[in-house]
Design a protein that fits this description.
This protein is α/β, with parallel strands linked by helices and 310 residues long. Helices cover 43% and strands 11% of the residues. A hairpin with a 5-residue loop joins strand 1 and strand 2. About 2% of the residues have low confidence.
Length: 310
């Protein structure tokens, strides 16, 4: 006598029952007749053939959008979740709700892997008062809307597989989220800061006179740094001692940089870290959209903002 497998649910849909019966009956070693299989599964013959016809003629109505989702996800370096995915799908004419996009991404196994903790060791640059400190001009009012008005800078540390550390110095525009500078070194020294400031000098327009906000790290207290900012007519601002929230825009950027990009790699040495950083710099500024900047890349949003302020 034919017995249904362990765990078989009486409440299964006719479609699933049909698939089970068809697979069983199609097996060359199946000793049972179709009539017996239908009876034990409580499935009418007419229902069976009707469902079988539907299964054989099935066409995935989401086939085209799934293909587009795969393309966008690959172009985003596997960083886009369903919200940014929906934004781009809307621009391409695929108008689905957030929940549908989320389910489609899940069905084809596309989920951004951004929560690895391997690179979360924090670099502490505070060595006490070794130079001049400056007042906190911003006071956590992160509401800049014009490019080159407020910049944020900091240094982060990355552990490498060769048991050494890499250091990344960054400057980010608060309004546009654009990376103004992203420099890599095997030491958090004066040269790293000079290279960072060289980028700033080359990138910001004349007569911009922005605020440059940092923590109270020793690099930012020394006379050479203060003098360089004065030459560029940049106003210096500092966080309160031990308060990372005062510089949260750059902290958020570093967190994103690590979760979206660096944590996906086993970084062997400083050369590999430099190459990965250069790749992310281009991707972030030129390709990565953000819903906080109206679905534009940082450079697109900067150009858009500057046109409005002309």
């Amino acid at each position: 006598m034919f017995k249904r497998p362990t765990g078989y649910d009486e409440g299964l849909s006719n479609k699933i029952k049909t698939q089970f019966v068809y697979n069983s009956w199609s097996d060359v070693n199946c000793p049972y007749k179709l009539k017996s299989l239908l009876k034990v599964n409580k499935l009418k013959r007419s229902t069976y053939y009707d469902e079988l016809k539907r299964i054989k003629n099935y066409k995935d109505k989401y086939a085209n959008v799934k293909k587009q989702i795969k393309t966008i996800f690959k172009q985003s370096k596997m960083t886009y979740g369903h919200r940014r995915m929906k934004f781009l799908l809307d621009k391409l004419g695929f108008n689905y709700c957030f929940e549908t996009v989320r389910k489609l991404m899940k069905s084809i196994g596309l989920q951004p892997k951004m929560f690895n903790t391997r690179c979360r060791k924090k670099y502490k640059s505070y060595h006490g008062k070794v130079g001049k400190t400056y007042p906190n001009i911003l006071r956590q009012n992160f509401n800049a809307i014009e490019p080159y008005k407020v910049l944020h800078t900091d240094i982060t540390q990355i552990k490498l597989l060769n048991n050494k550390n890499g250091y990344i110095s960054a400057v980010v525009d608060e309004a546009t989220k654009e990376i103004i500078s992203l420099q890599v070194s095997d030491s958090p020294n004066q040269e790293l800061i000079y290279r960072t400031l060289k980028d700033v000098k080359a990138r910001i327009p004349k007569k911009a006179y922005p605020v440059m906000h940092s923590d109270q790290g020793w690099h930012y207290q020394l006379p050479y740094y203060n003098n360089e900012l004065n030459k560029l007519k940049i106003i210096q601002s500092m966080s309160r001692k031990g308060n990372c929230l005062d510089n949260s825009p750059i902290e958020s950027f570093f967190s994103l940089f690590k979760r979206e990009w660096l944590n996906n790699f086993e970084i062997k040495n400083i050369d590999m870290l430099t190459k990965l950083t250069e790749q992310y710099l281009y991707f972030f500024n030129n390709e990565r959209i953000s819903l906080k900047t109206k679905g534009m890349t940082p450079i697109e949003y900067r150009n858009h903002s500057m046109k409005l302020n002309i």
